[in-house]
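Morning F.,

Quick status update on the modeling queue. The single chain you submitted on Monday has been processed. Sequence for confirmation:
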Amino acid sequence: MTKQHITFGVFIPQGWKMELVKIPTAAEKWQASVDIAKRAEQLGFDSIWVYDHFHNVPRPAHEAVFECWTVMAAMSQITTKIRLGQMVGCALYRPPALLAKITSTLDVISGGRLDWGIGAGWYENEFRSYGYQFPVPKDRIGMLRETVEIVKMMWSQEEATYEGKYYQTSRANCDPKPLQNPHPPIWIGGGGEQLTLRVVAQHADYSNFGGSPEDFARKVEILKGHCLSVGRDADEIGKTISGEILIRDTEQECREFQIASGRGDQFETWQKSNIVGTPDQVADKIEQYIKVGCTGFIPWCVDYPSTHTMNEFAKIMAKYR
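Structure tokens below.
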């Protein structure tokens, strides 16, 4: 067993992936989210996470999707120890100065438990339908970088004046400041090799990108190159993966779940870039990722609102405690 500190978190259900569709009322759907968040804390997970999305995937379905920051504010009051994250917030959905206020407030009301996740966004249908512009990737990533720079300034300075290509602030105040020192950890999601990973190298405390262990290893090496070019020690950046997780007693049960859930990929394709299989197979896959530099796992349990996979994942996590 690899002897190093590895962090474990889980997403909680909020409706984005249609996981609450069989629960009849909005109130009952919300209660399922609350119950699973509390269960994650009881099981000893380091963190719980939500997506920053407004519409269901793969397409809007008029099913409940609870908004990211509202959910986190509520979760901060019904949990006591577990950390609270977004994987990842969309930089373009909220002005940077507003994000500074939201994140600072959440860090205070949670007692210093915020992990701030941020990315450039990708869900064009959602952008368009909510009236947001959907710039080309280069501009979205530039807006991501400026967002992080503004938020960090507002977290730490009495007043923040910023003149960027995309955003400007003039003596912006952010009080109260976050509780965490020097600031809440910054998680930047995305694996774009030329632009996004360079922003990670410049500003992130944690990266988050996916793929098979081989893909993950390649991204780690590219990130190291960007760190070298900006004068950063790559070991300062935690390297995490999300993706999906499913744990069953037999692989055949996993295959049957994949078919029943309507996933279009072949089972082997799905399994390759996610954490799917028996407890032994999942434990082995986690070790494969750790060997290529992964320091944290924050998967989506595909069998929500069941807690079977989450419970089994906690047993594997316990081996690293």
